[in-house]
Design goal:
Blueprint (H helix, E strand, L loop, with lengths): L1 H20 L10 E2 L15 E2 L6 E2 L2 H5 L3 E6 L15 E7 L2 E8 L3 E2 L12 H5 L6 E2 L5 H9 L4 E2 L8 E2 L9 E2 L2 H8 L24 E2 L2 E7 L2 E8 L4 E6 L2 E2 L12 E6 L2 E4 L2 E7 L3 E9 L2 E9 L7 E3 L13 E6 L5 E3 L1
Parallel strand pairs: 4-8, 5-23, 8-9, 17-23
Antiparallel strand pairs: 1-7, 2-3, 4-6, 5-6, 10-11, 12-21, 13-14, 13-24, 14-15, 15-16, 17-20, 18-19, 20-21, 21-22
Length: 340
């Protein structure tokens, strides 16, 4: 009996260790650890504020005060299913040499595994700078690393083998993983990020002048890549499909943001490497905001690399988002978006 008790205790310790800090662990060690960005707190749980990137009620004071972390995630077909994205607060999707990659931002929730992690691109510093925390990525060309360094952003690369680990059962380069515990450890005791947006209060969304119904959204974020969102009124989310299939993650969760924003940003050539084009996110332009089964034509504005992007309606009023996860498509102006 004593031997069995010890064995069970060791098994429990190993399971807890994998859930909290095993970026290179097995396929079973995936998914959110605790509530996700779309999950409301349990009833009668004391609320200590609102998470700045999701607008959701915060019940954990330590998480409310912690900084944000950003990580570059692969979206190549060989990289799917990815891990940990269901726990992200904000996800940006950008065109990258024929495919897309994600800039994934965490603050309110945790994931036991996040990946596959890939390389940085010259537009990423302008995206993540306002969030204030480190940027985690596999590596990059010397010219791009100089851009990140000049922006004053803390870099965490695969040279940091305590934070980024190669995972068995996956082929390189789609086998580099981390977890939120390891990334927040690198962020240290920084400050929480500014608010990503204003957010709607609980209850049915108010009528927004100019909003029109939208139940299905389809676009091509890269040649040969399609993204589609189907509005699920019961769950109050947009269910994501990629290339005609539900975009599911390890563990089986389907990508399901509460808000989808199409931000039209010009793609410019990176002078040190003419093959590389990146989105210019400082400035202003058109956008479409999809929330609560509707679409709102909008304008975006970002005064500087360190400023958070704002979205306003035709009258110049800030658009309040539904509390929860937000997905931002950085699309070239003129890109078609089909709404049904």
């Amino acid at each position: 009996m004593k031997r069995r008790t010890i064995s069970l205790a060791v098994t429990l310790v190993l399971a807890l260790t994998a859930a909290c800090g095993g970026g290179g662990g097995d396929a079973a060690d995936v998914g959110s650890v605790g509530p996700g960005p779309n999950d409301p707190p349990a009833e009668a749980t004391p609320v200590v504020g609102r998470y700045p990137l999701t607008g959701m009620p915060a019940t954990d004071a330590a998480k409310l005060r912690r900084p944000a972390v950003a990580v570059k995630i692969d979206n190549n077909a060989q990289a799917r299913p990815q891990a940990g994205l269901e726990a992200a607060d904000v996800i940006y999707e950008e065109f990258t040499e024929g495919i897309t990659r994600f800039v994934v931002v965490f603050q309110s929730s945790d994931a036991a595994q996040v990946g596959p992690v890939r390389s940085v691109r010259p537009g990423d510093p302008g995206i993540v700078k306002p969030f204030g925390g480190p940027l985690v990525f596999s590596g990059g060309s010397p010219a791009v690393l100089d851009v990140v360094r000049t922006a004053g952003i803390t870099q965490v690369t695969e040279n940091d083998r305590e934070t980024l680990k190669r995972r068995s059962g996956r082929r390189a380069p789609h086998n580099l993983y981390t977890d939120t515990g390891l990334m927040f450890r690198k962020a240290g005791a920084g400050s929480p990020p500014p608010a990503f947006s204003t957010f709607l209060a609980a209850g049915p969304p108010p009528a927004v002048p100019g909003a029109t119904p939208a139940l299905n959204v389809r676009l091509s974020p890269a040649p040969g890549v399609t993204a589609q969102y189907q509005w699920d009124a019961a769950a109050n989310v947009w269910k994501r499909s990629t290339d005609g299939r539900p975009h599911t993650l390890e563990g089986g969760a389907q990508l399901s943001p509460r808000n989808v924003i199409v931000q039209y940003a010009p793609y410019v050539v990176f002078p040190p490497d003419a093959k590389v084009r990146y989105p210019e996110v400082v400035g202003s332009g058109d956008a479409v905001v999809f929330l609560a089964g509707s679409q709102i034509k909008a304008r975006w504005n970002k005064a500087s690399a360190g400023a958070m992007t704002t979205f306003s309606d035709a009258a110049g009023r800030p658009i309040a988002l539904t509390p929860g996860q937000t997905w931002v498509h950085l699309q070239a102006p003129g890109s078609a978006v089909t709404v049904g």
